[in-house]
Design goal:
This protein is α+β, with helices and mostly antiparallel strands. About 15% of the residues lie in helices and about 40% in strands. It is built from two helices and twelve strands; from the N terminus they run E-E-H-E-H-E-E-E-E-E-E-E-E-E. It is globular, with a radius of gyration of 15 Å. The relative contact order is 0.27.
């Protein structure tokens, strides 16, 4: 599980339906309130970053298994960070139809910095549903050019186009 620096949050708000295209998701955010499309940043990861993230996921799953905790890791298709009413919202599109509406709270791991990279970072978002198996969502992002990134606001998009907004009370110190 995440370290003692983890922060926990509860689901805030409902879910909205849409498609998995970022334009429609941005419009969905605009209804929750408005997204400043001028500040939207698509986080494009290169092959080395994706390989590092996958390796880190395998290590985290093995570490947790060694501690007697199983998790369900989800694959991430893409990410987007954008401002909504002054808050930085982290949009994560997952390769799954997992129902994020069942999530009761989120935990964040410590932030991991990619070796030999000045701004590639990884955090694990652990989704607790009240069931026996937490869901592990890796979130790879770039810290350069992003201010006040406290990782509090999340929007998860599934394969079937459903979106789920969650907030974490407290968050992390800006990264």
């Amino acid at each position: 599980m995440p370290s003692s620096n983890q922060k926990q949050g509860k689901r805030d708000g409902g879910n909205a339906t849409g498609t998995s295209s970022s334009r429609v998701v941005e419009q969905s955010l605009a209804q929750q309130p408005a997204v400043d499309l001028d500040t939207a940043q698509v986080d494009v990861a290169d092959a080395a970053e994706v390989a590092w993230m996958q390796s880190m996921v395998q290590q985290e799953v093995a570490k947790l298994k060694g501690m007697g905790q199983k998790v369900l890791p989800l694959k991430v298709k893409n990410t987007l960070a954008s401002r909504s009413s002054g808050k930085l919202v982290h949009r994560v599109e997952v390769a799954s139809n997992f129902d994020f509406g069942k999530v009761q709270s989120l935990l964040l791991s410590d932030v991991h910095s990619m070796p030999d990279s000045k701004d590639a970072k990884l955090v694990f978002v652990v989704c607790l549903t009240g069931g026996p198996l937490p869901v592990l969502v890796p979130y790879l992002f770039h810290s350069s050019g992003v201010q006040d990134n406290d990782l509090k606001e999340w929007l998860f998009v599934t394969n079937n186009g459903k979106t789920f907004r969650h907030s974490i009370k407290g968050g992390l110190a800006p990264v």
